Amino acid sequence: MGWRGILGFEYGIVQAPLGPDISGPELVAAVANAGGLGFLRAPDWESPDYLRGLIRKTRTLTDKPFGVGVVLAFPHEENVNTILDEKVAVLQVYWGDCSEELVLKAHQAGVKVVPQVGSFEDAKKAISVGVDAIIVQGREAGGHVIGQEGLISLLPRVVDLVGDHGISVIAAGGIVDARGYVAALALGAQGVCLGTRFVATEESYAHPTYKRNLIELNKTEYTNVFGRARWPNAPQRALVTPFFDEWKSLPPHENEVNQPVIGHATINGEEKEIRRFGGTVPNMTATGDIESMAMYAGQGVGLINEILPASEVVKRLVEGAQQLIQKEFSGL
Fold first, then answer.
1. What's the mean per-residue pLDDT of the chain?
2. Where in the chain is the domain with CATH 3.20.20.70?
3. 2, 62, 277, 302: most buried by Cβ count inside 10 Å?
4. Are 277 and 250 in contact (CB under 8 A)?
5. Which residues pair with 113 in a beta bridge?
């Protein structure tokens, strides 16, 4: 293992599973080849054959290990079985019950389990069922946000809770550069998980308009206007686009079901309608009113100024953190 490695990976840099299909094989393989841990995102419906194809395609692009993220709020049993059958290195789970049974089943298949949590209580439960690492998500994070606490207060509490259990703690939420990485290390994390920064990469499957907005806009807001029917009680942090600014006060009784179709996209092999407020971010295939679609981003988006290759993101994080520690802190 190299500098600050976790879970057998060279570096403590994790690329978050970006839904619905923004972190595809090209992005995940690029992160893996650069020494980080990249996550595919399983479909939000049972699609074991398609998922198997994604995993195998990724393996044609890298001989390094990688992971798959699964949202437990959606049908997932067959998808999880595929991940274990394919012996993917890491199963990341979110928004649901990371049970002892699931962890045991994964470990029997040789697969490590990493839940993402947003509270001290959920971290405590994850430790009790024997997980291999924990991603601690602060409220600063982009996309769907499971907790209410900021990273700077929650992270050290979880680090103290983990103690000597041998579980890696990974920080997530608003981190986009080496300064954020070093700050997370100072709070006791062994690694960092980045989402928005990896959306804004050359290999990401995000629509060019989404990527451009991540560079040009710098304000986000915690909201629940997107996907109220599809994924209830799942607030999100979104980029404040002109569309969002106009509609952010959507009355609580309204949702996407009765809204007009504003576009279409092929998502994980299936043709999908995108309704206004549906909450589906535009991927590379999206057509229609792209500017009116959800665009999720964390609070660190204002620090993202260019679209980079994923390998360059990893390199700048690692080298920048090493230099920062040597320059600023080694003489203390």
1. 96
2. 6-204+306-330
3. 277
4. yes
5. 91
